[in-house]
Amino acid sequence: MEGDDAAYGRLLEALTRSLRVTIRARLVRSGFGNADLEDVVQETLLAIHLKRHTWNRHERFTPWLTAIARHKLVDVMRRAHRRRAVPMDDVEWTLAEQGEEEGSREDVRNILGRLDVRRRRILQLVSIEGHSIRDAATVLEMSEVAVRVALHRTLKALAVVHRKVRNDESLNEDQ
Amino acid sequence: MKTSELIQSLAADRIQERRPGGSFWRLLPAPLLLAAALLLGTAGLREDFALVASTPRFLFKIAVTLALAVTACGAVLRLSRPDARIGGWAVGFIAAGALLIAGVLVEVANTPSDTWAMRLLGSNATWCLRMIPMLAALPLAACLYVLRKAAPTSPVRAGAMSGLFAAAVGAALYALHCTDDSPLFVATWYGLAAVLTTAVGALLGRWLLDW
What ipTM was reported for this prediction? Predict the structure, then answer.
């Protein structure tokens, strides 16, 4: 199981590098700044992960990936009132080693702060401190199963928070 | 949170939702049965059911509504995935539509023109407009519930198709009770009920199917 986690993690990392390049190109074209880039990349990664069950093994992976990335980009632009088509026909996903490194980022949007305390704690343990599920279960005095369920729900909540934050931003711009 | 940190959590999250098709087949029978029970419990079967069950007019209503239901069901499943189109299912819609039109033409060709208005208006139009959406409510809710777990890249279209599916199911059930047998009536009032339910589905889709 641990080996599978690591392999999936490497796939996500490779995808991230490609996503960063592709998303940045399209954001720049629409006048978005770099501050947005990493948030959009994270939102897209979340979507890819949370919706991975909608990929049909018998279909090609790339069109599915492109569709999800496009959907997220369109969503981001729509919430910022930039109604432009997002051309993605020329996307070439290269799972290459190159691609930008992540810049340092502050949690400008306070994404984590909008989660409730328990959820933040789980992310803290697993994401930031890098604990395994088993170790996190010990620390939290929960069963492993309970931690898995809580982590999954936390990730779903994280996706909702991203959307809410964008909605709030677009509402504030209207004022 | 840095992206590399997020990836730690994503990699540790092994819980995976069921595939949309699987969810659909698991969750749909109950609302369909409940809708059928609702019909039987409220309006009930038409009194002359045994007599008309094998007549062309009755079978026509069942055929059109079931064809639409099956087609819309397939289309919803297609639309539940990113960037999918309804694809081959379009044929089903064309077939159901053609069948409906054929029924209307046959009716018009075989009945005196001064009866058409009466046949179209029927006797229970308002009942029809109330019952079909009511019967469609549970199937629509179930559809939307499944779609929320899926990834429809066009929430409005997916919602609308759910509404159409639910309307077709409601119409098929209502046909078991309805005594207005003219294809003119079916095309008009079942059609109107379907349009209304589809519109509701589209609105709910826009509201509920974000991801």
Answer: 0.89
CA atoms within a 13 Å half-sphere pointing along the CA-CB vector of A38: 19
Q: Encoding tokens for residue B117?
A: 């208005």
Backbone angle region of B87, left / alpha / beta, with phi > 0 → left and psi within -120 to 50 → alpha: left
Residue A133: strand, helix, or coil:
helix
**Which of A41, A107, A133 is closest, CB to CB, to B12?**
A133
**pLDDT lower than 70: segments of chain A:** 1-3, 35, 82-85, 89-90, 92, 94-108, 173-175
| Residue entry with tokens 């939290």 | A140
- Convert the pLDDT of each residue in A145-157 to its tens digit: 999 999 999 999 9
> How distant is the Cα of B150 from the closest Cα of chain A, in angstroms?
6
Cα nearest neighbour of A50 on chain B: B16
Region of residue B83 (phi > 0: left; psi between -120 and 50: alpha; otherwise: beta):
left
Residue identified by tokens 């996500």 is A12
CB A123 within 8 A of CB A170: no
- Residue reference for tokens 């999250």: B13
The SS3 call for residue A91 is coil
